[in-house]
Amino acid sequence: MNASPEMNFDEMLGVKLEVLRREHRDLDEAIHALEITGRPDVLTLRRLKKQKLALKDQIVRIEDKLIPNIIA
Questions:
Q1: Is 41 strand, coil or helix?
Q2: Whole-prediction pTM value?
Q3: DSSP string covering 5-38, please?
Q4: Residue 38: alpha-carbon gap to chain centroid
């Protein structure tokens, strides 16, 4: 079989999805670490939560592209 060394569009989306999920987990850990400190920086916390939400939106959009919308 002739396998192309290049990735197709779905494979690229899959890689991007994994990167975004990793970034989302990292932000979650950073937020948690800030929250357990005595007095977290409210502005930093708000900024991190906003970034996390934006990542989640990107993750959902990519998942929608990768998972076919089958109505049973």
A1: coil
A2: 0.80
A3: SS--HHHHHHHHHHHHHHHHHHHHHHHHHHHHSS
A4: 28
> For residue 52, what are the contacts with CB-CB under 8 A and spacing of at least 6?
24, 27, 28, 31
What are the percentages of helix, strand and coil residues in the chain, rounded to 5?
75, 0, 25
54 is a domain residue: yes
List average pLDDT for each run of 10 residues in the chain, which is 72 residues long: 70 95 97 90 95 97 84 61
Within a domain: residue 29?
yes
Domain, as residue range, for 25:
9-64
- Distance CA(64)–CA(58), nearest Å, equals 10
**Cβ atoms within 10 A of the Cβ of 42, count?**
9
Which residue type occupies 65? K
Number of structural domains (the chain) is 1
Q: Is residue 3 included in any domain, yes or no?
A: no
Q: Residue 71 corresponds to which amino acid?
A: I
